[in-house]
Fold these 2 entries.
Entry 1:
Amino acid sequence: MRRKLAAGNWKMNGSIAALEMIDQLSQAHGDAGCEILLCPPAPFLIPAREKASSGPVAIGAQTCHAATAGAHTGDISASMIAETGATHVIVGHSERRESYGETDAEVQAKAKAGQNAGLVAIVCLGESLEQREAGEALPVIKAQLKGSVPAGSTGADLVVAYEPIWAIGTGKIPTMAEIAQVHATLRADLKDLLGDAGNDVRLLYGGSVKPGNAADIFALPDVDGALVGGASLKAADFSPIIQALDAS
Ligand code: PEP
């Protein structure tokens, strides 16, 4: 049985004061059946962990370097993230693939580094609008999955997030049939890649998830939760998404 996951990606937003939201989520969702994760900017990992203490909110980072240490100014290693008490790391977000030219091989190396440090790697993938309109969404996603997922991954150290690039921060989402088709494809390919373990890997949908569309998305087969950007910045938006996931 895969435990559902509501993951929030703050991107380069928020502040120490905004971590107050962790108290609000902890109070509202102390008995949540689903897992709740917030990924604030790296400087806030330690105060976020302190706020989260033993409550229901886990803390994760938004990227890591593939190397364990060295001359990489400005970067942070997976073991440094683990030392803060964070438990997850997002890798291969489309904004990093686009802005930093991260390739599938680099994403795979980062995911492996995260897993080696004891973190759960959340591997993001998704097609561009041009690729979807050209009918190439599925081949693109299948290639990204194959290239980005480390061999030997399990449900305990890997989560995959399907995030169509054109749906991120735009208010647009694919049809429910399109999301279901991609998730079914990812599930089948994960089983091919990882054997039985592929059945345990959680599949998140990401891209303009809001309180108003969350329940419909969570009702789809093989959607085990969401990776949420904008709507994870305020408890008033993230809380109803968590509730919808819990109720699904
Ligand atoms: C994201 O950045 O991963 C994301 C899904 O953003 P949003 O929810 O704002 O579309």
Entry 2:
Amino acid sequence: MTDFATPPIAPFAIQFDADAARLTPEGPTLVRRMSALEGLFADHQAWEAAVADGDPIVYSVQSSPVPEVNRELPQSITTIEPGTTAGEFWMTKGHQHPDHQGEIYLALHGTGGLLMFDGEETAWLDMTPGTIGYIPPGWAHRSVNVGDDPYKFLAVYPGGAGHDYGWVLEHGMGNRVYSTADGHELRPFTARA
Ligand code: PAN
Ligand code: ZN
């Protein structure tokens, strides 16, 4: 067998229940409430009001037990609750992988979108069940729930890629995603007010 500096984990099976949007065996689950999204919505006062009004869960991420280390390939299922803050759809924080590596998302439930930004150009993919969104190396990425139901997707990513959230706070994502009478609309990024 190849001599790795850090020995890989042993082969094992993961049960993927698409209906329940669950991976078994389960690894850690991360819950992000509104207070964790400071500085991300355009309307800071509306964000503060939502934190004061029960600090709702915006999204959760359930992982399999594959570790986030170099050469391993972890998976997770993210569930974004439906909602808006001053018209801006609820979303993930968004991040850049410091070690620029690609990632795939498979949409499972609901109606979402995958917003990507490489520092100059923005890309948007509509995500409905069955869509695989491909995130190329070097593109920061954020998921947005643009529907009335929870939006759920599976992510598979290189374990050593890392997650840089500061990059998105500093550079934004190129666009913001707002609710409109007949769906959603992307508007140019504005710093928060
Ligand atoms: C995803 C994301 C997950 C939560 O697993 O980490 O959807 O989004 P934030 O990490 O931006 O809070 C992924 O892209 N992993 O690399
Ligand atoms: Zn990622």
